């Protein structure tokens, strides 16, 4: 089954304790992206990647890191989480062809609480 | 720049119709529509491209007025399964496939029996 998976689905942590949220897709998509969803603010893009070793900042990258060492994986790293990063996080993937727009496939989400 | 969606919320009875609007202050290359059910991931509905091309479900109807920089999603003969939050995403200019889609804050639709 074609899908995007995220782990963990729920996470409660304390301020400053480094954490990683994993994202994996089995559709051989070149493009992957991370979003955060907050009430009243909709989906905001954190980082995206067009292919292995190619990443770029989205609209709200502060406090986050990403890496893309394999095509299927795109982990999100919070080196020193703070309470304002409490949010619902979604990973998404899509094909990538220069000049073409495609639909994005979203993972199930990770609900993160930082106390 | 985040697109503006209206209404913010709407309640329908089964069988009724609804229109969700999405507008931008800038010229648009494409408009994307997604639906998110409570506790689930957003699911793709449709992409409307400048020039009239559409990609998406045959049963979903939408329009894209390039001149007015807005799009509308039409939900006809609503069913309980239509309930959820609808997001539009806008792409300003052809971002060359880099998916520079900015999402609105969503329209919460509830269909009741």
The parts of chain A where pLDDT drops under 50 for at least 5 residues are none
Oligomeric state of this protein: heterodimer
Q: Give the largest interface.
A: A-B, 30 and 28 residues
Order of helices and strands of chain B: EEEEEEEEEEE
Structural category of chain A: mainly beta
Distance between the termini of chain B: 37 Å
Count of helical stretches of chain B: 0
Determine the number of helices of chain A (DSSP H or I, runs of at least 4 residues): 0
Indicate the proportion of strand residues of chain A. over 45%
Number of extended strands of chain B:
11
**Helix content range of chain B:** under 10%
Radius of gyration of chain B: 13 Å
Mean pLDDT of chain B: 89
Rg of Cα set of chain A = 13 Å
Question: What letter string, H or E per element, gives the SSE order of chain A?
Answer: EEEEEEEEEEE
Structural class of chain B: mainly beta
Helix content of chain A: under 10%
Work out the strand percent of chain B: over 45%
Largest sheet of chain B: 7 strands, mixed
List the helices and strands and how they pair.
The complex is a heterodimer of chains A (115) and B (113).
Chain A (H helix, E strand, L loop, with lengths): L3 E4 L2 E4 L5 E7 L5 E8 L3 E10 L2 E4 L7 E2 L9 E3 L8 E8 L10 E2 L3 E5 L1
Parallel strand pairs in A: 2-11
Antiparallel strand pairs in A: 1-3, 3-8, 4-5, 4-9, 5-6, 7-8, 9-10, 9-11
Chain B lengths: L3 E3 L2 E5 L4 E6 L6 E7 L6 E7 L4 E3 L4 E5 L4 E6 L8 E8 L9 E3 L3 E6 L1
Parallel strand pairs in B: 2-11
Antiparallel strand pairs in B: 1-3, 3-8, 4-5, 4-9, 5-6, 7-8, 9-10, 9-11
């Amino acid at each position: 089954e074609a899908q995007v998976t995220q782990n963990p689905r729920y996470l409660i942590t304390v301020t400053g304790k480094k954490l990683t949220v994993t994202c994996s897709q089995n559709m051989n998509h070149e493009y992957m992206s991370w979003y955060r969803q907050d009430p009243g603010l909709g989906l905001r893009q954190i980082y995206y990647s067009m292919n292995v070793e190619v990443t770029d900042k989205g609209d709200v990258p502060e406090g986050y890191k990403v890496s893309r060492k394999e095509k299927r994986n795109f982990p999100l790293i919070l080196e020193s989480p703070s309470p304002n990063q409490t949010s619902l996080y979604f990973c998404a993937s899509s094909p990538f062809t220069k000049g073409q727009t495609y639909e994005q496939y979203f993972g199930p989400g990770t609900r993160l609480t930082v106390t | 720049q985040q697109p503006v969606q209206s209404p913010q919320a709407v309640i329908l009875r089964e069988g009724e119709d609804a229109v969700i609007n999405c507008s931008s202050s800038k010229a648009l290359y494409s408009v994307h529509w997604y639906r998110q059910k409570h506790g689930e991931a957003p699911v793709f509905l449709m992409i409307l491209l400048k020039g009239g091309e559409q990609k998406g479900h045959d049963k979903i109807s939408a329009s894209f007025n390039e001149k007015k920089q807005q799009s509308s999603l039409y939900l006809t003969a609503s069913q309980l399964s239509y309930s959820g939050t609808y997001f539009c995403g806008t792409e300003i200019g052809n971002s060359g496939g880099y998916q520079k889609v900015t999402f609105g804050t969503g329209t919460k639709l509830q269909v009741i029996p």
